[in-house]
Structure formats: C-alpha cells, structure tokens
Input
Amino acid sequence: MKEIQLKGYSQSISVAGEIISSPSIACMELIEAFKSPKILDLPSYEIGNKLNDALTKAYYHTGFKRPKTEEFLQLQIYLADFLNSEKQYQAVSIDEISIAIKRGSDGQYGDFMGIAPKSVTGWIRAYLLSENRKDAKVIQQHIEEQSKQPKPEPTPQEQWDNFVVRLRLLYSNYLAGIPIQPVEATFYFKILRRSRVINFDEEQRNNLKSKAFIEIRKEANPERATSKDERRRMTAAFEVLTANASEDPQVISRAMALGLIEWFKDLKEFGRTIDQAVNEEF
Output
C-alpha cells in the first residue's frame, strides 16, 4: 500500500485513504488553527488584538525590548495592512498568523536581528510555504473526507459489548444510589430477558406488576392536579388505568423497570458482577 510520509511528523497517510495514524501535537495545532476565522472575515480591531498578543509574546520570548506604544501600534497597523494586501494572505486563518510569529521568533525560519516589519512578514511567508503547513492541510482534508463517509453498522457482538458497557454503568449508578430512569431500565430489562440473562417466573412477574401498578396509580392520581383542566385529563386517564390494572401498558413497562432493579439487588446480595452474570447466563 502506497503511503505519503509527512515530513516533520511521525504519521503517514494512505494514498487509498484507508489508514491515517494519529497526527502529532504540532500537526494538531495547525489543524485547529485552520478552524479559526480567516483574515478576510475579521474586523480590523480583532486582527489588531491577535497581532498585539502574538507580537507581545514574541518580544518576551526573544528578549528584545518591546517598542514604545506608538511604534508598537505602527507595527501592528503595517502587518494588518500587509495581511489584507493580497488574497493569499486574506485566506489565511488568524490563528495561523499567531503560529507563524511564534515559530519565527523561535528561529524556525532562519536568523533575524530584531522583530521588525520585514522579519515578521518574512516569517508569515515562510510559514505559508512550509512543508509542515502542507502536510497539515493534507491531513485535514483526509480527516474531513473520512468524517463524511458512512460508518459501518456495528456487528452483533459490538452491539452486545456496547450494551454491556452501559449496563455496567447503570449497575454502578444503582450501587451509588443514583436513580435510573424507568424508560432506560425497561429497555435494558427487555434485552436481558430476551437474551435469557434474566429469568423471572410467573409469581415474580405478577409481584412486579403489582408494585408497578401501585406506583403508577399514585403518580396518576387526579388529586395531584394543579388545575381543573389537568384534573379532567388525569381523571380520564386514571379511570383507564384502574380498569386495566396490572395489564395496563404503563404498568407492564414500569414492572420491567422494577425487574431490572430487582436483578441488580440479587447481584449485590450474592456479590456478583455484571460480567459474571452475563457470561454465565448469556
């Protein structure tokens, strides 16, 4: 398989697009910088603020004395005009300019006698022509293309593994006293029962439905209404619930949620883990 070796970095990209290793920290810095606003899209005061910050750090880093306010401002104005002078600079992201100044002050683009308009514009030009930037652009394009490709559906085993990971978390929450949402508990109970991990007999199921009916009946009591309209709606729903009793869909769903909690209680009582229960019974 042909590969492009990215100079200055440890990673490479498959020409066919199959493989990309983790970009280096330096490369990720550039990829993040590409996401910042472009010079063309920024008001002059924001460009000035960024240049002020980058130049101040450069003076501190190099040990050169920062010029007086007026001279320092003139340098920023000159650089802002420079960046807006040509389309190739206008299309550059503002954070890239900060990186160019930083790397230039590090001496990555050659020796310099001081931080002057000529040296800073030279750093920017050198940065834009650098192999590092070209490599980062290639990786950015590859990442964007990969993100647009449809992800393959997980295999049944991967789905089950993800299910167990979440189940472990729910069990940890239960042990920590963190409430589990009934809807999620119902879902996990259904999967575990279909998989024959949970096996409740008829008596256990009836007990769960009785408990669930008591809970739902209490929650649906019209006495909890805060207005006449709400009381009217709740009364109608309460009558249906009472008529269906333990066979009401809400009750059955809540019974399943309670079933998961009962299963968790058994695991805790016998000192078993989720993995032990799943691997033994699945």
About this structure: Confidence is low (pLDDT under 50) at residues 1-20. The first strand starts at residue 3 and ends at 5. The beta strands are 3-5, 12-14. The two ends are 41 Å apart (CA to CA).
